[in-house]
Design a protein that fits this description.
The complex is a heterodimer of chains A (about 325) and B (about 400). With about 325 residues, chain A is of the alpha/beta class. Helix content of chain A is about 35%, strand content about 15%. Chain A has a single domain, classed as Thiamin diphosphate (ThDP)-binding fold, Pyr/PP domains (Rossmann fold).
Chain lengths: ~325, ~400
């Protein structure tokens, strides 16, 4: 399909689908997300990219969470695609049902997306997600990871980084935020199922996000894209800084960008301008207790270790294939 | 044609004849044979355009059916006991979304203590979920009700749960008449969804509803159930006309015309009760039996019309609400409150305890009934337990 029908747009080699006037506005304006919401931007870019790559033939299943709550309130809704919300923990299974129905109707050209936040994906919905991967159901699951339960007031989730402050991991004398040695890597869990395609993406790199979703949507079988979406409310930074924060996470190594095929790492994006983890952590109030008069180098070492391990494991250094 | 079949297999045959497009299965005793039977039919090519999905949990089983039904195809699953509780969030969701899914419930107790045998605790836990709930007395009824269930569900736009006594029906071999595919096709047309996920008509299903509208949505759900009473009756009549069997409708009445005492129940125990009252009536007593087919919606008017002719109503119920007593009997008391008819409750058969003819006969012949009776309670076990408790109290260990 031609990338654009509007003059001049298709000639811009690096232009995003989102920057084109032909975009679908799958998640259109007027919804009630917070100012600077990373998840709203991530969902808008991801679904528009999928819509474009599948020639408009997509159906979306949404888990309960911020994305669902801010995008629809009867009698209004902000979705320009067929959209179904069932429950918090069952989006993957509902999407399996949608794909099965399309299969039995001979409409496999209609592509199915399930989407939800990190809680819906990696915690309460983990069983359904694993079942979907296990059966290799023809669904693209997109997780928008803002690293805590933002809709209910910033409680810790399974993807909350160690030492981060949340409403249920408040730093005290003997506690520095979320406990060390906690948290799970949902992309790695997806890879362990050896599904055709797993990728991580970030709203700090829209071109890359669109490219990965566009690729994933047309692959048959289970696909998983894990999108890093900073949350100004939960992380405590200025609403204008969302993209910047997302980029800093990539640059410091705490959020690696990679693709995996059938359980094996296939490609990763080398870090262009490496920065220290402090440069990423300092602007966020959720890590404020790691700095200032109560600063502990041991705590910072825990996070530094994770970044370094990512850089090594996903080959994010200068020598990595780009 | 008549076959000697296990209840589960009879249900599987009925469901296959209804040509579902998506069937999802998670094993739980005693419904397992149902989905195994359908799986076999799908794999053998008899039901070639159906997708059979082995899911990882009961929650997923109903969620898959929610997704497929919302995409516009006839969908089916089955469950039992803890499985129904595990999927309960999706049970409420399916009715709220008005999806005409059909689900078999192989009735079983709920733990703890764990117990895999029959009673109606599972169904009672789902009684306020907004599903239509039909109870089968025999395997033939179970088979017939499944065929009617798809038609009722699709006509009204609500999910239907067909309740079948675990083991007593699901695992019992009985002769059943299985209609031909042609007959079922003539009764049950292909499913045409009123609302579904469609790329040509994108819409949002399952949106947030604020306090401004929520009350009205719930009121309409109630009205829809009330309206379903008429639909269930009509489809029962239609079925009778075509297949010659009176296996649907709201109630099944037996010798109630001049009965002084009417025994009301749900499910397979009605057969045993009928045997007992035949014997009593031959000795000059005037007993009748009503088994409720449509438990939800509750056929209040039809039931009251029949019960008000009697002096007494005895409710035989296989579940109760801890801390208050019988559930079905309380519902019947509620509808009979402006009459002279007295309502008594027998709580029996919990966790698969046999309800025998002598037990029922002995009760029915009592001079005076208690408001509620746990039938066949082993008093020694209870007394021992109380003794232990009072001893420890006397010792005053604290």
């Amino acid at each position: 399909m031609s990338s654009s029908t509007l003059s001049g747009e298709s000639s811009k080699k690096n232009s995003t689908i989102q920057s084109r006037r032909s975009r679908n506005n799958s998640l259109t304006s007027g919804h009630r997300a917070c100012q600077g919401c990373g998840e709203a931007l991530g969902a808008r870019c991801a679904i528009d990219a999928a819509y474009h790559a599948a020639a408009g033939k997509i159906t979306v299943v949404n888990a309960t969470g911020c994305l669902e709550v801010f995008s629809c309130s009867f009698p209004e809704n902000a979705w320009n695609v067929p959209w179904l919300h069932s429950l918090f923990g069952n989006a993957a299974a509902v999407a399996t049902g949608v794909a099965a129905a399309l299969h039995s109707q001979g409409k496999e050209d209609v592509r199915v997306i399930a989407q939800g936040g990190d809680g819906a994906t990696g915690d309460i919905g983990m069983g359904c997600l694993s079942g979907m991967f296990d059966r290799n159901d023809d669904v693209l699951y997109i997780c928008y990871d803002n690293q805590a339960y933002m809709n209910t007031g910033v409680q810790r989730s399974g993807t909350t980084p160690p030492l981060a402050r949340t409403a249920t991991t408040v730093p005290h004398k003997n506690y520095a935020g979320s406990d060390p040695q906690t948290g799970k890597n949902v992309a790695q869990i997806a890879m362990a199922h050896e599904i055709p395609y797993v990728a991580t993406a970030s709203i700090g790199n829209i071109q890359d996000l669109e490219k990965k979703v566009s690729k994933a949507i047309n692959i048959r079988g289970s696909k998983y894209v894990h999108v890093h979406v900073p949350c100004p409310l939960g992380w405590g930074y200025d609403t204008a800084e969302t993209i910047k924060i997302a980029r800093l996470a990539i640059q410091c190594g705490l959020f690696p960008l990679f693709e995996a095929e059938y359980g094996k790492l296939a490609r990763s994006t080398a870090i262009e301008d490496p920065i220290s983890i402090e440069d990423y952590l300092k602007p966020q109030k959720r890590f404020a207790h790691l700095f200032g008069k109560n600063a502990s180098s041991e705590s910072l070492d825990i996070l530094r270790k994770i970044a370094n391990s990512n850089i090594e494991k996903y080959r994010l250094g200068k020598t990595a294939d780009d | 044609m008549r076959y000697q079949l296990e209840g589960s297999q009879a249900i599987a045959k009925a469901v296959a004849l209804c040509r579902p497009k998506v069937v999802c299965a998670y094993p739980i005793t005693p419904q397992t044979h149902v989905v195994e039977g359908i799986g076999e039919v799908v794999r053998s090519g008899e039901l070639s355009d159906c997708k059979f999905i082995n899911v990882e949990s009961e929650m997923a089983a109903l969620s898959v059916a929610i997704g497929s039904q919302a995409t516009g195809v006839r969908s089916y699953t089955a469950t039992s006991s803890q499985g129904l509780l595990y999927m309960m969030e999706a049970v409420y969701n399916a009715s709220g979304l008005e999806l005409p899914i059909v689900m078999t419930l192989g009735n079983r107790a709920i733990g703890s203590p764990i117990n895999i045998w029959n009673d109606h605790s599972d169904a009672m836990a789902g009684r306020d979920s907004g599903w239509i709930m039909l109870f089968a007395e025999t395997n033939q009824e179970a088979l017939d009700l499944h065929i009617q269930a798809f038609k009722i569900a699709e006509k009204i736009g609500l999910p239907v749960m067909v309740c079948v006594d675990g083991f007593i029906l699901t695992h019992a071999y009985e002769p059943v008449d299985i209609p031909s595919q042609k007959e079922v096709d003539a009764f049950l047309p292909s499913y045409v969804p009123t609302v579904s996920l469609d790329i040509h008509k994108p819409l949002a299903i399952g949106t947030m509803v604020s306090p401004e509208y929520f009350m009205e949505v719930r009121y309409l759900a109630h009205q829809k159930q009330i309206d379903a009473l008429q639909v269930i009756c009509c489809i029962g009549e239609e079925f009778k006309k075509q297949f010659g069997r009176n296996s649907g409708g709201l109630l099944s009445e037996y010798k109630t015309e001049d009965a002084e005492v009417i025994v009301v129940t749900l499910g397979s125990i009605a057969g045993t009760i009928k045997d007992v009252i035949d014997d009593l009536n031959s000795r000059g007593k005037k007993f009748g039996v009503i088994s409720i087919v449509s438990y939800r919606p509750f056929p209040a008017d039809a039931l009251k019309d029949s019960l008000k002719r009697a002096k007494m109503v005895i409710v035989v119920e296989k579940a109760f609400a801890v801390g208050i007593g019988g559930i079905l009997s309380h519902e019947i008391e509620l509808i009979m409150k402006d009459t002279e008819v007295e309502v008594f409750s027998i709580i029996a058969g919990l966790g698969g305890r046999s309800i025998t003819k002598p037990m029922l006969q002995e009760y029915f012949l009592r001079k005076k009934y208690e408001k509620a009776t746990f039938l066949g309670l082993k008093k020694k076990i209870i007394a021992d337990k109380y003794e232990v408790r009072s001893c420890s109290n006397q010792e005053g260990s604290v």
